[in-house]
Amino acid sequence: MGNSSRVPALRHGLHIVRHLAGLGGPAPASAIAEALGLPRSTVYHLLSELEREGFVVHLPEERRYGLGIAAYELGTAYTRQAPLARLARPLLGRLVDDVRHSAHLAVLHGREVLYLLEERAPGRASLVTDVGVRLPAHLTASGRAVLARLPAAQVRALFPDATAFTHRHGTGPRGLSELRQVLSDVRRRGHAVEDGEVTPGFASVAAAAADHTGYPVAAVAVTFAREAVAADGWAAIGDRVNETTAELSRRLGGPGTAASPPSSPPAAS
């Protein structure tokens, strides 16, 4: 097969990867074919090739396809050079100067959050949320801040059943109904919190930053030893985190307010 005949297949393969990247979770091959206007036989063949190269993973029990580790590796290579981290770094620095606790920037990656930046406050201990670490989104303040701004259908696709809810210390939501309540609390409060669900004795407060479409592209969180902040001090930290994500949203061309609801409010389900 000549190089010219490979180009359409390459283009279609890239379209599949891009399509999967834009979904809230894995999808059936038939749905991919319909969305892209491609013959099912072509899609199955391309999915097989993409799976062989690690860009796609097949979930046989669900009869669906999702992004593979090779796509993740490309994504993390991008984030190391992306403007998101560059835009956020000085904002995190000012946030840490103000609250005197460590802060970090994270993005949603499937059902996990990936930490891109950490700005450690002077004298503070290192945290489990180091750069490059991934943690379950439903347990972290960062993940909850982002999930709370996604449509309900997308959250449901990410967490279809109880097997999607991993635990670190036996705490946190164990099913979709409990997660919905957590996310409802985030929207009511205006920021997300977690208390000992990632690391016992530590708590976090987080808010999401949105791009020009209103999509929550990242979250900023402050983590502190629980004993170091009185209960009535959490809201003040949340306000300062919201100011930071509002500025980051503005720099990303977003609405400029991290606490505002999604452009399409989560539908009841």
UniProtKB/TrEMBL annotation:
Superkingdom in the source lineage: Bacteria
Domain HTH iclR-type intervals: 7-69
Keywords: DNA-binding, Transcription, Transcription regulation
Nuclease as UniProt keyword: no
Protein's GO biological process: negative regulation of DNA-templated transcription
SMART domains: HTH_ICLR
All residue ranges annotated as the IclR-ED domain in the record: 70-254
The keyword Disulfide bond appears for this protein: no
MF GO annotations: DNA binding; DNA-binding transcription factor activity
InterPro entries: ArsR-like_HTH, GAF-like_dom_sf, HTH_MetabolicPath_Reg, Tscrpt_reg_IclR_C, Tscrpt_reg_IclR_N, WH-like_DNA-bd_sf, WH_DNA-bd_sf
Coiled-coil residue spans: none
Ranges for region Disordered: 246-269
Protein name: IclR family transcriptional regulator
Origin species: Haloactinopolyspora alba
Taxonomic lineage: Bacteria, Bacillati, Actinomycetota, Actinomycetes, Jiangellales
